[in-house]
Design a protein that fits this description.
Largest sheet of chain A: 3 strands, mixed
CATH architecture of the largest domain in chain A: Orthogonal Bundle
Structural class of chain A: mainly alpha
Oligomer: homodimer
Shape of chain A: globular
């Protein structure tokens, strides 16, 4: 009976995946090619498919199968046991929230997103305030229903980074903050001289496309199982076991948007292409967390791409596709790609200051969820803390508390995964350098296969078999730490 | 109870449509942008969605609702009555075939399609013969289960042209054949002088795209509810109530492929864009038949586009986008677009000879289904009849009996809808000319709205409310006749 239950869980899980992957095709088309008038009906198609998938997975019979399968005592270190653990987590989280609350949350999100867009356009937080109020209230209700030991925030971060708590993250971010502030004071003077438009020029879209495609291919992206299209907001998405697509945007003056955008999304797509395709639809065939996912994108974008080694190797190819780059030496290009500057906007931030933006958001949303900060005091709290961290006065809410979409989507607990991604990237890279002999020489020669092979072996192939912290321990010897990233940044920006 | 049953039928019908339209998005992506390795899983997604839709619609409860709704005695001339009539037809046809037969037919089709491709490549009918044998046997079984009065062929054509029988089609095609043979003997000498490559030149893809888009827009195609992409085999497809997409192909030497291809698919898309969007998912919001659908594509492609009036108006625009066309006068272009030549291949045939190709196929598949022709005698029957009709000796089976995919797909009864489309196009055009004052002047000036308005009013808006023959009677005063097309061709090719 129990083994049959495990088989039935597999079958159901694959059916849910099939529906969600079909929805992913509809979403991809929604973002890339849909004609404008087709939008409302597409939203109906998508919510129907998602509702079907939800109903299939939360069917009480799934609970029965789970109970039966759990009694069989599968080893939690093996695939079956891990799948059961992950189904249990998802099933409990999905069934603990009553349908009425899900619907109220969805409605609130829809209205909050519109209000946020208007509030940001007018730089007027008061338009957004009542919506954040409601989002925080409903999110707290969800956290209470899900349950937690220390902070309700832990119940939220569980969606993105299973097994991680606020208490674990805090000391790591504290250590990182101190190090970044030091680092900034040391490098500030020498790098500030580089103007923002240093690399600006005339770069044809065809040239940018050809160049970024060649780089993605060299990194190991399989174009027979993917493609690159154009959207305003770049993303990577998976439409099925051999279908990992990327999008990017092109700026005729700045080739860096598309180039580093494609490297970033290629990192995400390489992770998905490295998951075991015969496990598609099972937890063991799925990415484990956002913090691990983001480590893959950051690793290829920053550790591999934003380096002098990259530009020494790729300079001729870049000049072939983008002739206006011949004005620059490889060293110029590497400097431009590593420019450091304080700024108000997270998505425009460089490698060094990026995590300070995240820190700020983590502290504030943690305080909101724990009830230590009132929504109406949020803008002031933002501006005060921003000044402490960056030494800059926020000019308006649009460039402050209103800049990100996340809270309007109800995604509290999401922000720290960006920094976890950065930390994991540095830590994985350090481990790969130790374990793969001659890795940096290989990378300097454009032989990216050994690095990808190491990531496949130590990260990709495992799917959700281990919790993120365990995955990091198995790959690097310890759970996520700040010091690998600190060492990396100091090496890269001070030498 | 009965009215509630009607509401439930509407709801179920819309749910089935939602699933099928979601599948249409997946199919569109399959034809346009899918990466090669993603194909097998996409096939799984598609067959899952289609199976879900089939199960929903053939649920016995649908039969109960139908019975209850039928007892309410809705007027069959009104929308509700027509919807019930159409659901009944679909429900009976879907439920009369046992699942085992459906599955055997699907397997047979899959193998037949592969065998056909191989047989055609090697021009060897014997490779395909056993598959046709099986297709004909299973098709006969289906026809017997569906039921018919005179010929089993009637049960097949019902899928494509509801309410039409072989006996109705025969005399019309006979009249057409005699007229075409006469016409060919009269025009042959003067038109044969035009070489096949008369219009060949150098036409950039960008120029072809811009030109055909402008023409499609002028005809009335709404790009906010559609788009044009590139595929090997052009098609039009509907992905939802405001999402009618077109594809085409580009040949750098021949702009006619893309131009007339886009006009043709635009005709299909205009029909779909003219269906009442608030009825999407109900029979009253669906196209009525292939013979009506094809009339819309042929009308815009041939009656509007393949004319001296078109080229006199569009010559400057064409030359702007495709400068190599400046070698030609408007009259040259019109002559090139109306070139008549005997050929072996249906899809390459001109307006005058096209229906002779269809006639041949209709006679042969009718004889196969009625058991008057053995599959092994098919190639000889083809070649003999081809020689009688065209006066040409078929050089090999690839250019003869193996050229079309339809029989490998099990689509017997499909071919006559092409000719019905041609006949309907001429008949509708004649009616429009009578009813819309100054129509030909309007068309000559590029004012296509009155024609589109007449088609919307008399064809598009009705969906499946009337059977095709009734729709034609309401729009033109009589059911489909041969003489309008004969008059049209004689006027166009003899004056």
């Amino acid at each position: 009976m129990s083994s049959a239950a495990y088989q039935q869980l597999c079958e159901r899980s694959r059916e849910v995946y099939l529906l969600r992957s079909a929805a992913a095709v509809l979403s991809w088309d929604f973002e890339t090619y849909i004609p404008s008038k087709a939008v409302p009906y597409r939203a109906e198609q998508l919510s129907y498919l998602e509702a079907k998938a939800h109903t299939l997975f939360t069917d009480p019979v799934v609970g029965d199968w789970l109970q039966a399968a759990e009694q069989l005592g599968f080893d939690p270190g093996l695939e079956e046991g891990a799948n059961i653990r992950e189904w249990r987590r998802s099933y409990d989280r999905a069934t603990k929230i009553p349908v009425a609350l899900i619907e109220e949350f969805e409605k609130t999100r829809t209205m909050a997103r519109e209000a946020w867009a208007r509030a940001r356009a007018e730089s007027n937080f008061s338009l957004f305030e009542p919506h954040v109020e409601k989002i925080v209230t409903l999110t707290r209700q969800k956290a209470d229903l899900w349950g937690y030991r220390e902070s309700p925030y832990d119940a939220l971060i569980e969606d993105y980074e299973p097994g991680t708590t606020a208490e674990q993250v805090k000391p790591i971010l504290k250590e990182l903050r101190a190090a970044l502030v030091d680092l900034l004071s040391e490098i500030e003077t020498e790098t500030k001289s580089l103007p923002e438009n240093f690399l600006d020029g005339h770069y044809s879209i065809q040239g940018q496309q050809a160049f970024s495609r060649e780089v993605a291919g060299a990194f190991g992206y399989d174009f027979a199982a993917g493609r690159i299209d154009t959207t305003m907001h770049p993303f990577a998405t998976t439409l099925g076991p051999f279908d990992q697509r990327i999008t990017t945007r092109y700026d005729l003056k700045r080739f860096e948007f598309s180039l580093y955008g494609v490297m970033h999304e290629t990192g995400h797509a390489l992770y998905e292409q490295g998951l075991p395709p015969d496990r598609a639809g099972l937890p063991s065939g799925e990415a484990v967390s956002l913090g691990i996912h983001e480590s893959q994108s950051r690793l290829w974008e920053n550790h591999v791409g934003r380096t002098p080694e990259f530009w020494h190797l790729w300079h001729p190819t870049a000049c072939k596709y983008l002739p206006d780059l011949t004005r620059f030496s490889p060293t110029d290009l590497a400097s431009g790609a590593r420019r450091v500057a304080l700024s108000f906007i997270r998505v425009e931030a460089d490698e060094v200051t990026y995590d300070l933006h995240i820190l700020l958001r983590f502290e504030l949303e943690l305080a909101l969820v724990e009830g230590r900060l009132k929504v109406k005091d949020l803008p002031e709290a933002w501006n005060t803390r921003f000044h402490e961290l960056f030494g800059l006065v926020v000019p308006d809410d649009a460039r402050g508390v209103l800049q990100d979409i996340h809270w309007s989507l109800g995604s509290l607990g999401y922000f720290p995964t960006y920094t976890l991604g950065n930390l994991n990237a540095a830590q994985l890279m350090a481990a790969a350098e130790k374990q793969v002999s001659g890795l940096s020489d290989q990378l300097a020669q454009g032989n990216y296969a050994p690095l990808l092979g190491w990531l496949r072996e130590n990260v990709h192939q495992h799917g959700r078999r281990y919790l993120p912290a365990d995955l990091m321990r198995r790959a690097t010897g310890e759970s996520t730490q700040a010091r690998y990233r600190i060492d990396y940044l100091r090496r890269k920006y001070l030498s």
